[in-house]
Amino acid sequence: MRRDLLTSVVAVIAITVVLGLAYPLAVAGIAQVVFPGQANGSKVSLNGKVVGSSLIGQEAKGAAYFHPRPSATGYSGNATFFGNVGPNSVEGRELVRESIAAYLKLEKPYDRSLTVDEIPVDAVTQSGSGVDPHISEANARIQAHRVAAVRKLPLERVEELISDHTDGRGLGVFGEPGVNVLELNIALEEEAPR
Predict the structure, then answer these.
(1) Which residue spans within 86-188 are E strands per DSSP?
(2) How far apart are CA 52 and CA 41, in angstroms?
(3) d(CA 61, CA 150)
(4) Paired residues of 44 in beta bridges
(5) Rounded to the nearest 5 degrees, what angle is found at the Cα of 149, between the Cα atoms of 143 and 141?
(6) Terminal CA-to-CA distance of the chain, rounded, Å?
(7) Which of 154, 170, 173 is nearest to 162 (CA)?
(8) Which end of the chain has fewer CB atoms at under 10 Å, N or C?
(9) pTM attached to this predicted model
């Protein structure tokens, strides 16, 4: 029995050292060499100051900024989750109705032709994590009218910035192109500071 106990203790220590220390340190080291930006959180800076991560959506306040998707967590990277309500949920329908009303209230003054049917689904629904940093191109192009008017920029210039900050499909085939809201808002600040 003593021999079995000693073997077990040695095995636990060896596995802890290999899987608990050596492997994580090796993976972190490789990540720092191969993907240093992503390994350090994909930080985004404005005027030399870190203002966020290109991987985590952030709340944008005010009409001069592009707004991300709704979030159940207040865009907290510490507690990401999806507001788990199904399509048949009364609560879910009410949340979408409220989001539609808020979206129209914000965007309609700048694009009088906007109708409920033209609102992209990502403008009024949460992402799976609640902190998706991207919005659809359609959502960004609707918001462009407001941002251009408030910042007194030509709509064409704002649409160019949208195109510049649109990421393609993953590996060229997965998902839809998306516009990184934080990076687009930073480009706007550089173009026409508020």
Answers:
(1) 134-135, 166-167, 178-180
(2) 9
(3) 13
(4) 52
(5) 25
(6) 74
(7) 154
(8) N
(9) 0.78
